[in-house]
Design a protein that fits this description.
Copper Amine Oxidase, Chain A, domain 1, about 500 residues, alpha+beta, single chain, about 20% helix, seven-stranded mixed beta sheet
Length: about 500
């Protein structure tokens, strides 16, 4: 991982850059909401998924026979008579009779719970045809939960989850624990929140969960458009929703909170320079997509911004045992976030949530809009043969820059590439406070604070540091870095170092 390299920049028109920055929310703040259907049936196969419309006859759900067979294989010859149908699935004949529950599959005779129908030109079979006939003709395992509108055929292992609500001081904490790692995209539509659960098949234990809660009345699972999602129904409008992933993507934590009262606007203090606004930002203090999506609310609390390096197709460094930097720093940031929240002294804003590739402009915009008291960017890489090892960096320009004249009025606007200058000394003090706390962890080598051209720190309008843990390299064992105890000690040291930097006694 090249922590100090200035990456190549794409050239984007200011107007387009603003649009892309604003649109970059949580992972995707306003993911395109699809029109949901309640009359579809989803077929999950190892490499594909298909959606077939259901038809209800006398309160019984039916599926069209030929499309169902073509989902799991290919129909050959068809022989249709007035009151009967015979089709060949490969070399296996399937024979049905109108308004009859009996079906012949090869030489076997099976009985369905409801008779075969043909209301128009299409032959329909009840849903239990899937579990009685498909295993006979495909030789695949079939997993089906009675009453559900989805089925898993072949070597498909769906993810399951459990849901829990806990009241908090000013809202509700939602905890969703998944059996496997997931990614999450969020959307808001028609007064509800949508959590899209990636592209993996999901099988809920319950279709919906109802609660006697002051903030959430119901959570419903839906995949009728082929995209697994959770739909959260709040009890009232105007509530804020702040989700984040923890434990490497196996736990979703979300706080539902009442919005804080609007903060009074104060003019800049005398002699304090204003900062030039980048394309895509809003007036500080105005709620933005990023802030709404990732902030831990609390009107009187200062903000801390946590930045997980890399993400998505940007893997970062790789360990000998396959550990990726993007995953490792995601785990560390999740633990740091919880450690900071446990102090009840900070709101926390995340620049990225889940496994997504977030560009520098988005990270800067999220941070500067939140007006934080500190910014931490977490990395992992090759720090030599010693492990575990931690280095804290503050920003240092790669080439000399012109310092402002000591005499005369200070400029009202500071260009974004120069904004780090206004926080140089504070950033150095923050890095020193962190290094001292890291040095107290048994078995961890904490190098003296360093300065380097870490690009993500350059345009942050706050005390900002990069924390790099190592060594994450193919020449060293990365096991110590993934140890939960080590990660928890790092998180505690960050919280303690921030407290010391801000004048506490921790």
């Amino acid at each position: 991982m090249h922590l100090f390299n200035e990456p190549r920049r794409r050239l984007i028109s200011p107007g387009l850059g603003a649009v892309l920055t604003i649109a970059g929310g949580l992972v995707v703040l306003f993911w395109p909401t699809r029109s949901l259907r309640s009359d579809n049936f989803v077929f999950y196969l190892p490499s594909t998924r298909s959606i077939i419309p259901l038809e209800t006859i006398e309160q019984t759900p039916y599926l069209p026979l030929i499309p169902v067979l073509n989902v799991v294989g290919k129909v050959g010859a068809i022989q249709e008579k007035r009151d009967s149908l015979k089709v060949w699935f490969g070399d296996i004949p399937i024979e049905l009779h109108l308004d009859d529950k009996r079906v012949r599959v090869g030489k076997a005779r099976l009985t369905l719970t409801q008779p075969v129908r043909r209301p128009r030109t299409q032959w329909l079979v009840p849903v239990d045809f899937l579990i009685k006939v498909l295993p006979q003709i495909t030789r695949d395992t079939v997993e089906y939960q009675v009453g559900a509108h989805r089925i898993f055929i072949g070597n498909v292992k769906p993810i399951s989850f459990s849901v829990r609500l806990d009241p908090t001081g000013n809202g509700t904490r939602l905890t969703v624990q998944f059996s496997e790692k997931i990614t999450v995209n969020t959307a808001a539509s028609n007064g509800k929140w949508y959590l899209y659960l990636g592209n993996q098949p999901v099988e809920p234990l319950e279709q919906s969960y109802r609660f006697q809660d002051a903030n959430i009345s119901e959570i419903t699972f839906d995949d009728q458009d082929g995209v697994p999602k959770l739909i959260l129904t709040p009890t009232a409008s105007g509530l804020n929703f702040y989700p984040t992933l923890a434990e490497g993507g196996k736990i979703l934590l979300a706080d539902v909170l009442k919005p804080p009262p609007p903060a009074p606007q104060h003019p800049p203090a005398a002699g304090q320079p204003a900062v030039a606004t980048t394309p895509g930002t809003t007036t500080p203090g105005t709620p933005t997509g990023e802030e709404v999506a990732t902030a831990e609310a609390g009107p009187a609390l200062p903000v801390v911004v946590l930045d997980s390096a890399h993400g998505g197709d940007d893997l970062g460094a790789r360990g000998r045992d396959g550990v990726l930097e993007k995953d490792l720093v995601g785990q560390l940031v999740a633990r740091v976030r919880l450690a900071l929240l446990a102090t009840h002294k900070y709101r926390v804003v995340l620049t990225r949530l889940g496994d997504t590739n977030i560009d520098l402009e988005h990270r800067e915009t999220v941070a500067n809009t939140a007006r934080p008291v500190a910014f931490f960017s977490v990395h992992a890489g090759n720090l030599g043969l010693t492990a575990p090892r931690v280095v804290v960096y503050s920003y240092h320009a790669p080439t000399p820059f012109l310092a402002p004249e000591s005499e005369g009025p200070k400029p009202l606007l500071v260009p974004w590439p120069m904004v780090f200058q206004t926080h140089l000394e504070q950033s150095r003090q923050l890095s020193l406070a962190l290094q001292q706390k890291f040095g107290q962890i048994s078995g961890v080598t904490a190098d003296p604070p360093a300065e380097a051209p870490v690009r993500v720190l350059r345009s942050i309008n706050a005390p900002a540091v990069a924390i790099e843990v190592g060594s994450l390299t193919e020449d060293a064992d990365s096991g110590p870095l993934t140890n939960p105890g080590f990660q928890q000690q790092i998180a505690g040291a960050v919280a303690a170092g921030l407290e010391a930097f801000r004048g506490g006694t921790t």
